[in-house]
């Protein structure tokens, strides 16, 4: 006889059209989710910065500042908070980006794992993992 065990994984998903004015609202929702599931102090600060930068980059670079469709997913499993921010914008280009180029470094600095990927059908995916608890 095979026994199947189901495990509920805490999950947050935020989707919709996002503009620069929405970045702080998304940051607060992810912060509250992270705090509820064991993140504190420096972990929360790193998560806030990373989410703010990922969403702001999607708005600014993916959609040239006008905003567009963005999805933020977060889940907690085995003491790790995984956050994925995706957009359907223009993706990586060979054109120089505006800004100082610090956003990716800020996201990477507080994460235990970090990747940025071009999506095959357009846009960018930012994947980050943080140790919580």
Task: Tell me what the structure shows.
With 133 residues, the protein is of the alpha+beta class. Helices cover 33% and strands 30% of the residues. The protein has a five-stranded antiparallel β-sheet, with helices on one face. Strand 4 (113-118) and strand 5 (124-131) form a beta hairpin. The model has no long low-confidence stretch (mean pLDDT 89).
Quick synopsis:
By secondary structure, this protein is of the alpha+beta class. The chain is built from three helices and five strands; from the N terminus they run E-H-H-E-E-H-E-E. A hairpin with a 2-residue loop joins strand 2 and strand 3.
Mean pLDDT, rounded to whole units?
89
Structural class: alpha+beta
Mind telling me the CATH superfamily name? Histidine kinase-like ATPase, C-terminal domain
Total DSSP E strands: 5
- Principal-axis shape equals globular
Instruction: Domain count, please report it.
Output: 1
Helix count, per DSSP?
A: 3
Query: What percentage of amino acids are in beta strands?
Result: 25-35%
SSE topology sketch:
Layout: E1 11-18, H1 23-36, H2 41-62, E2 68-77, E3 80-87, H3 103-110, E4 113-118, E5 124-131
Helix pairs in contact: 1-2, 2-3
């Amino acid at each position: 006889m095979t026994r199947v065990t189901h495990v509920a994984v805490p999950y947050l998903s935020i989707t919709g059209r996002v503009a620069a004015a929405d970045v702080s609202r998304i940051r607060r929702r992810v912060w509250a989710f992270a705090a509820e599931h064991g993140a504190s102090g420096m972990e929360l600060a790193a998560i806030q910065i990373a989410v703010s930068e990922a969403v702001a980059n999607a708005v600014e670079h993916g959609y040239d500042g006008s905003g567009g469709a963005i999805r933020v997913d977060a889940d907690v499993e085995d003491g790790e908070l995984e956050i994925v921010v995706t957009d359907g914008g223009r993706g990586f280009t060979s054109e120089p980006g505006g800004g100082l180029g610090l956003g990716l470094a800020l996201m990477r600095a507080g994460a235990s794992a970090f990747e940025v990927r071009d999506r095959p059908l357009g846009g960018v995916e930012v994947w980050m993992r943080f140790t919580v608890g």
